[in-house]
Amino acid sequence: MIDALGGRWGPILVAAASAIVVAGAGAWLTALGPWYRSLQVPSWKPPDWAFGPVWTTIFTLAAIAGVLSWNAAPEGPPRTWLIAAFALNGALNIAWSGVFFRLERPDWALIEVVALWLSVVLLIVVVGRLSGLGAVLLVPYLVWVGIAACLNWSIVRLNGPF
Asked: Which homologous superfamily is 3-159 in?
């Protein structure tokens, strides 16, 4: 179906649109209002302005990884696994912002970020079976979610209970 969307451009368009949807939904759920500003954060927390460029880079690399692996995947189960892995990861990525910022539950988000990190590992494995370069492009995502998990844990420790 993706190839029918525009031949060679289909996977690129779908990957770009998917990245924009996940990034946009996560951004929409991210509320840097009074509750967030009142949280105690560790001294090593990256500045708020850094999150946009980092996530933009990560989503760009993930979209490229998606295109590379899609183009390398034979039709059938490998493509189905690829789509499922990206869909699961996208849903968990969006959910973390909702749980942390909208529900104001960093403690629950700490549990969710473990699932998100594991979904990035799964994504690297699935993509890696199809494209070594694609898997390498996802490593910064894994590192960043690991940093986010440490930050999330620190916020829970400094501010709990919620």
From this structure: TspO/MBR protein (1.20.1260.100)
